[in-house]
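We close this part of the discussion by returning to an individual protein. In the encoding step, the backbone of a single protein was reduced to a row of integers, each denoting a local shape. The sequence in question and its structure tokens are set out directly beneath this paragraph.
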Amino acid sequence: MSQSDRGLRRLAAGTLLVAFQGTTAPGWVLRELEHGLGGVTLFGFNVGDPAQVAELTGSLRAAGEPVISLDEEGGDVTRLAYHVGSPYPGNAALGAVDDVELTHRVYRAIGSELAACGINLDMAPDADVNTADDNPVVGTRSFGNDTALVARHTVAAVRGLQSVNVAACVKHFPGHGATRVDSHLAIPVVDVTLDVLRERELVPFRAAIQAGAKSVMTAHVAVPALTGQTPATLSPAALTGLLRDELGFDGVVVSDALDMHAITKSVGLAGGAARSLIAGADLLCLGPIPDYAAVQQVIAEIAATVPAERLEEAAARVAALRAWFGDGLAAAADHAVIGLAAARRAVRLTGSPNPLSDPLVVEIDTPPTIAVGDVPWGLELPEAETIRLKPDDADPKPLLERASGRSLIVVVKDAHRHSASRRLVTMLVTARPDTTVIEMGLPIWRPESAAYIATYGAARANAQAAVELLTA
């Protein structure tokens, strides 16, 4: 390989954020970091505890100058707390409280924990205006459906993270909140005019850019008025024309994970990587699926098809981001309490639960989204019997018999999106009007009777706030 080819390969590798299995870095990742690999994205399967993550990131930094990223949104989407649930409520809860100083403090605490673990880029906050109630991928990850509210809390989140030198990555540009399809599985469509896009979806992104957001993540969504049938991740009109030229963003553009079907089932992983760079992206998140052979194919495709000047432009932006990163900070003093304090302020009670007596907790299972993953959720009510069941398989009669003479508490998650959950809740509440229903997703549907608690998320902090309300 000639010197010029090696230089081109280094530029191509420098655009990639790769993933790997396990809690230690494999040899190929360390070797590629020595040769200019952009960095890594960590997932739940890379995380044991904070000390292990710090050791892992230390080994990565010893090999190169990596961007080390993960999705730590608080609430349902967590990587550091993937195995136990987040100690921080997510955006829906923060939007329900609507205190921008609280949002700033929560995100500063999250950023402090990330910095202490050696992570320098957080794929957060979610700036989507969630205008579709049945959105399968956003939901409680959004601050809400009011454009101005989402914008002011997005700014607070960006400033909170970046106050401890963890770069924010505002997502999912140009907006995923009006979709009803999961981009992990297909290409969602946001079929609105450019005027609506500018007045609704783009407002939080514009505000975040003006607040100094260091990076923006693309969405694999098609906006026919802007991108035709092409996902924004692959669209020069979206990434260069709209994001760069119109909104004036000159930070790092990060692609959403390119292993999603919206990309792999249309143009393929390597083709999608090259097209995203040509469209205006600077760093490519490959997602958790590709192995080293696939990474090598992506590097080769980029080197062969993306103009060198475009790769040099991307490298310059990433270099500026690296220069901004701090060395890592100790966790903020209030990180242990701010999450629960925020969750307590978010929880809402309608009606009056009866005092608890030998409670039976029925958790109606909801399949996790791909973005959330298999993060534990539910109620940890002391001295209660807890049953988790799938609503399609549930017979209410034995549940009611088991609950006879006892307090009955039914826990659901996004009941508005699952008809079987709604049917089961309705049958139980009809037979037992003294039931308490706890909604740990978006509180869009509720039974006509029964005491009702809305937590605005299923994080560990949300659950604890609900328990405190029940046992007060």
